[in-house]
Design goal:
Elements lengths: L4 E2 L3 E7 L1 H14 L3 E10 L2 E9 L10 E8 L3 H10 L3 E10 L2 E9 L6 E8 L3 H10 L2 E14 L11 E13 L6 E6 L1 H13 L2 E11 L5 E10 L5 E3 L3 E2 H12 L4 E4 L3 E3 L6 E4 L2 E3 L3 H15 L4 E8 L2 E12 L4 E2 L6 E2 L4 H14 L32 H5 L22 H11 L14 H15 L3 H10 L8 E2 L15 E2 L14 H4 L1 E3 L1 H8 L14 H7 L16 E2 L5 E7 L2 E7 L4 E7 L1 E2 L10 H15 L2 E2 L3 E2 L1
Parallel strand pairs: 25-31
Antiparallel strand pairs: 1-32, 2-4, 3-4, 5-7, 6-7, 8-10, 9-10, 11-13, 12-13, 14-19, 15-18, 16-19, 17-18, 20-21, 20-30, 21-22, 21-33, 23-26, 24-26, 27-28, 28-29, 29-30
């Protein structure tokens, strides 16, 4: 792995007291925003101890989206269960354990959406075969299962009460609606039997995703094991069972240092009371980019009806992944490659904004310059019928704060198809009044960025495309971007075919007229070459001065702007992004707060903001954040 970029994927802590666990959850989940994905309680020397795994989480989550408890008495669990359900939570992990003869439960609950689920926490181990058959019969699969030894009155005691206490093996489980994946549960098994089963499952292409151990009998000197198995994903993995604390810590150092991700702790106690010692059933996976991304891409493309996808990813300014997936042309069977050209839609807006920042740096335009009226850059396009439009300045256009002409059902860019950009602007000034005073309200405006393209032309004396190509893109190493054509016959060599959904026609628009707000055609890698040179990171050198990058990426603060700056959305962490959509095209561009940049484009699209499971832009954004979250070892980067 010499030269590879190893990403620290998770935080794993064990041997925590109750107070230490609370402190860890407060810091890792509450402050750092990580997601608790596994929690185990166990007994060591007669005392309760806890272990947990905290993983990445992307996107905004309310502070209350995750709830955990680590020492619920088993008698109280049902009332807690009902309370969490009433609050909209669903169980993600349930781990019973015993300390000083008392059975307690540790659990994780989330408000995140998911398929229908069910959970039980009090099954006798003898009921396991019946339970598994019932789960399958109802069309579900086991998502989590944990076994434990419970100290209870002997149910078979024939004499008068009180009955003597005996150890009874029980289990808890969570099951969710089946998604078609293969799965099975095997056990309880002795250590040797479990190893044999492990070898058999490995030969069948399965790996354990959850392993649990528990004491057998009153002495606790023997343990049994149960594994939940699912198909392997083609990634290297290691899984151990019944290892002691020293072995577990040694493996954690060895594997964690090389980027292996721990999927579960599987902590339990060998023995009881003062004699109890911790044991672990950990599972690790080495998440390499090619198999992880291929699997994520295939699922995304199937779920969102996507023929072809291209993506490019950079870490610390260097290319670590670029690939095409699916088909550029379904009829011809042509695959998408890294050379495939796509319409990039509104990823154009950060390009246009960056070009204007450089012109502002050169003193050729100012953000406070008037746009229309006798003193404006575009005074020759007519006097606005709405006098307020004469007060629009360049900054207003960059921030979508010009006061009107929004991207809605009346978007000017989709009207008057016979007019060129300048003619269209004159028509809008004469016929379309503003909705608000300029500078007072945010309303996303394609037309506003069309106007910015004409300002660039006025200032430079060149076409928008020529100026941006020569003065912005060429210094980034980009020489093959161009403005799109409108029809199928206008396709460039290597350009994909676009496919509409829900009756949309990708070839019915004046895309060429959209030049400065949504008109570029490019490879994902070329857009990435631009992105890493305006990202504000040390390497490679940026083509826009630092002060102007700061200005360009400082949110306007206007009501409803949701962090929009000048051509970029920006969140509180410093992550910047833009998305794009046209019939037949969906795109996303992201510069993260932790050193990543990526670009992804597909040759179809559907807008359905009310239903994220149908909205292609949402799905593409989630895909790329999943890539960010799930790949742990990237190859050595290449200069862009």
């Amino acid at each position: 792995m010499d030269g590879d970029v190893v990403v620290s994927p998770v935080e794993v802590l064990s041997d925590l007291t109750a107070q230490q666990y609370e402190d860890a959850f407060r810091e890792l989940s509450g402050v750092r925003g990580l997601r608790l994905v596994d929690v185990c309680g166990y007994e060591a020397g007669g005392q309760a101890r806890y272990a947990g795994i905290w993983d990445f989480v992307h996107g905004p989550h309310p502070e209350s989206y995750q709830w955990t408890a680590y020492a619920i008495p088993v008698a109280d669990y049902q009332s807690v269960f009902q309370a969490r359900m009433a609050e909209g939570y669903r169980p993600m992990r349930i781990t019973p354990y015993s300390v000083a003869g008392q059975t307690l439960i540790a659990a994780i609950w989330e408000t995140t959406p998911g398929p229908p689920w069910a959970s039980r926490h009090d099954f006798n181990v003898l009921n396991l075969p019946t339970h598994l058959r019932e789960v399958r019969r109802q069309g579900y699969r086991v998502a989590d299962i944990c076994f434990y030894s419970s100290l209870e009155p002997n149910p078979d005691y024939p004499g008068p009460p009180p009955a003597p206490l005996v150890r009874i093996a029980r289990f808890s489980s969570i099951w969710v609606q089946s998604d078609g994946r293969d799965w099975d549960v095997f056990g309880p098994l002795t250590a040797d039997e479990y190893q044999a089963e492990f070898d058999r499952q490995n030969g069948l292409g399965r790996l354990p995703v959850r392993a649990t151990g528990f004491n057998v009998g009153d002495s606790g000197d023997q343990q049994h094991f149960v594994g939940l198995w699912e198909p392997a994903r083609g990634l290297p993995y290691e899984a151990h069972h019944g290892i002691d604390d020293a072995g577990y810590q040694a493996d954690s150092v060895r594997l964690g240092g090389d980027g292996w991700r721990q999927l579960c702790v599987g902590a339990y106690s060998a023995g009881y009371g003062d004699a109890a010692t911790p044991r672990f059933n950990p599972i690790w996976e080495l998440r390499l980019p090619d198999p992880v991304i291929a699997g994520l891409a295939a699922k995304f493309m199937n779920d969102y009806e996507v023929p072809g996808l291209s993506m490019a990813v950079a870490k610390d300014g260097q290319l670590v992944h670029a690939a095409g997936y699916g088909l550029a042309d379904k009829d011809a069977g042509t695959p998408v490659t890294t050379s495939s050209l796509f319409r990039i839609a509104s990823l154009t807006k950060p390009i246009t904004s960056s070009a204007l920042m450089n012109l502002a740096n050169q003193g050729r335009v100012a953000l406070q310059d008037l746009v229309f009226g006798p003193n404006g850059h575009l005074s020759d396009l007519g006097t606005p019928a709405d006098a307020r439009a004469a007060n629009i300045i360049v900054r207003h256009l960059l921030e979508h704060a010009c006061g009107g002409w929004a991207n809605d059902s009346h978007d000017p860019m989709y009207t008057n198809p016979t007019l060129d950009q300048r003619q269209l602007i004159s028509w809008v000034l004469a016929n379309r009044p503003l909705d608000n005073v300029p500078g007072t309200a945010y309303a996303y405006s394609n037309f506003g960025y069309c106007v910015l393209g004409r300002i660039i032309e006025h200032v430079t004396g060149r076409t928008y495309a020529d100026h941006v190509s020569q003065d912005l893109l060429a210094p980034c190493g980009v020489t093959d971007m161009s403005i799109a054509g409108n029809t199928l016959a206008d396709r460039r060599p290597d350009e994909v075919v676009y496919y509409g959904l829900d009756g949309d026609d990708p070839y019915s628009m004046q895309v060429h007229r959209m030049d400065s707000h949504g008109g570029w055609v490019a490879t994902a890698t070329d857009v990435l070459r631009f992105l890493v040179r305006v990202d504000g990171f040390p390497s490679p050198p940026d083509v826009v001065p630092e002060d102007w990058i700061t200005a360009m990426t400082t949110p306007s603060g206007l009501p409803g702007s949701e962090g929009y700056a000048m051509g970029w959305w920006v969140d509180a962490r410093g992550t910047r992004w833009h998305t794009g959509y046209l019939p037949g095209t969906t795109s996303v561009l992201v510069r993260t707060h932790d050193g990543y940049c990526w670009v992804a484009v597909v040759n179809t699209g559907r807008e359905d903001k009310a239903n994220p499971d149908r909205d292609t832009e949402h799905g593409l954004s989630e895909l790329m954040w999943d890539v960010h979250d799930q790949v742990d070892v990237w190859p050595a980067g290449q200069p862009l």
